[in-house]
Each structure stands twice: as C-alpha cells, then as structure tokens.
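Students often ask what a holo structure prediction actually looks like on paper. The answer is less mysterious than it sounds. You provide the chain, you provide the ligand, and the output is a string of discrete structure tokens encoding the 3D arrangement of the protein together with zinc ion.
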Amino acid sequence: MALQKCPDCGHDVSTRAQACPNCGAPMMQPSPADSAKKPVTIERTGKSYKAWTIAGIALITLGFLTCANYGASGGTGTQVGISLIILGGLVGLLAQATGWWQHG
Ligand SMILES: [Zn+2]
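The corresponding structure tokens follow.
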C-alpha cells in the first residue's frame, strides 16, 4: 500500500484514502481507472474505423478483380464488379465520415 503526504498537515496517508485521517483534508485521487479508460475508447473507435476502411478497400479490390476477370466478356460480371467498387467506395467514405464525426 503506497503512502502519500497530506498536502494540509503532512501526515502519511494511504493513496487509497479519500481523505486524510488526521485532518480530514480531501486527498488527490490517482485514478488509473479513468486514465486507462480513455485510450481504450479511442483505440476501439480507431479500430472499428480502420476495419470499415479495410472492408471498403477490400470491396474495391474485389470489384476490380471481378472487372478484370469479366472485362473481356463484359455483361453481368462487369456490372457486379462496378457495383462492388461503388459499394467499397461508399463503405470507405462512410468509415471516414464516421471517424471524422466521432473525433471532431
Ligand atoms: Zn492531513
């Protein structure tokens, strides 16, 4: 158990104590819970944003691959490929917008 000096009377007080037992002065609480929570939230936001961006890029890549495969014959395959590219673009754009909205 760590001890800290009371800022008012200099008495040794446990860091877990809410107030100094000698003079009753409120103690500064080192709050590892609060400081630990914030970066986790930011990281979670960042990760989901990154996941959606990756999903968008994957869809665009898939669309281009579909276009390349069906490029010669055209028709439905090319349309599916173009749809995938547009969908991927939308997902990526939405991810960027969400990231911008949550960080701004
Ligand atoms: Zn005190």
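The first strand starts at residue 3 and ends at 5.
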